[in-house]
Amino acid sequence: MGRNSEQLQTAGRGDDQRGDYIQLSLFPESPQEQADYGTAAGDTPAAVFEFPDSYIDECLRTGGNNQDSLEYILFDLVQENPSELLTGDLKKMWVGGKGLAMSDGVKVSVWYSEDGISFHRGNGARKNPEKTISWVEAAERIESLYQNGQFTTKELQEKAFDTIRTRIAEYVFFFYRDSRLESRWGSVYIEAVEKITGELRDPIGVNTIYEELLSFEKRVDFETGWQKRNFETAKEHLKKLNQAFIPVSQNGTEPVHIAFITADEIDKLLQEGGIVQGGKSRILSFYQQDPVPDAKTAIAFLKEEYGTGGHSASISGAFHSDEWHDARGFLLKKGNIQKNLTWKEAEKRIRTLIENKEYPYSQQQENIETENKQTKNKERERENVPNFGTQESKPDELLFQIDFSEHDVISPYDREKGDFTVRKMSFAVANKLFTVLDKQEMEKQENEEEGYSYYKTAFSIYAVIDSEEYSFKGRYDIGSEGKSLLEHIREYYDYCLSSDCMYRQYWEQDGVLDEKIEQITKYSENFLPYLEEHTDLTPAEQKQLDGLMQKEEPQALQDKKYEMLILEE
């Protein structure tokens, strides 16, 4: 963490360190660009000719949006009856859409749906595609390209099966670890995965590991869902690897790359209604007022509803994609592509989706009143946060406390007691407050050319989720994080679950590694989403935040930046 943390870029600027993304305006501006690119989802294509088969093949050769997509396609292609296997896997794994630039410069939108794959020259393929092929036809086309050696490059094919073996090795390792079984490869993640991957390069090794795994199927009590999934996935992949045929040599060209984020993908993102629970219903209810609010009022409402935040894998579920929204609008990233969406543009698209009955209607419309009542009850609970330490059985709750901070806005110094004041606030206020103060300090250092400095802040979180208690104690360094409090906590859990985590060796020495990993995984799957649901500010919380932000830090406290005792997270 610190000054080298990744920073979000503002409109019109790139990453100073790499400068490798492509930034596109939301809509084409010149008449020529509109003709070449298409102005909106469903527009008449630029060319009136039939959609070329070569474009379809090029789109198929790029794979889906999920990680290792092409590698898993090649894995299916070396099985018996590959078309049948591919049909099911493509339909299940390829979701969302993508925007590609063909080798001749023509931009093509792709959309994956229940019926198959839709294509359109220009921006958007979902509403009025030029061409739609079924999943069966897609699988047959891919197999034909593969048999002719034109589906992918020689380099990708050579790396594909090493990638698959590594993924299988990971599933095998996690199965042994979660089942508390003694592994002949050891319990250190990197070393074990490397050994298993090596054995999987030999057909005898593949069969041996497969038989060993099968022997545990009836003897192991699967205590958790992910334990069962690791076993089933490892078993399925080992069976496929054991039955794989010799691959057909590939000499195809490099697949085309993603060139833009499509209108379909943006609409799909906006249809989700933000990251706060119940957002879709509140937005839909707002636009169903009579009379319908004007654009200015709607923009103000959407800003408040969405707040500040974002999430990863948000554009068509792509692994290397994320979305961020704040007072300026949306920042969307997918691979090296970046797109900015203003609130004016977002409001217009949401209004159009609702008018065209394309906003999630059925379930949300039936439950609007129920969800609104539940939301109001939650807001009242959050405005009247109870004390820590209540141990009796109670409904879901979330409590946040500042234990210590060098920043006077958060935890003022009591001169009489000679100590810092403990402060309680909601998680929503803390998440927003930490983000704003961190950004202010980082900008101050850049503008005034101050040296590296930060304010150490220790905090505690207590939550009850489905009658289970969760707690977290950590430290956030205001002025060096470059991320929200929620992102800080998520990064900590991701690090603990990674093979690079330095704590693993100590947990292993203490004999608690499996217990720790299971606990952290549980927190990552339950506690983090719960925190994410509670980042939206109520009016009372916004008032509290505004009051805190009006405070000025005394010079005496600024001088203590480097003198305070460091609290380890």
TrEMBL record:
Return the Polar residues bias intervals: 1-10
Domain of life the protein comes from: Bacteria
Region labeled Disordered — which residues?
A: 1-21, 362-391
Can you tell me which residues the record assigns to a coiled coil? none
Specify residue ranges for compositional bias: Basic and acidic residues. Answer: 370-384
What the entry lists under InterPro entries is as follows: LPD25 (IPR041045)
Q: Which residues form the Large polyvalent protein associated domain?
A: 396-497
What's the protein name?
Large polyvalent protein associated domain-containing protein
Q: In which organism is this protein found?
A: Anaerobutyricum hallii
Organism placement in taxonomy? Bacteria, Bacillati, Bacillota, Clostridia, Lachnospirales
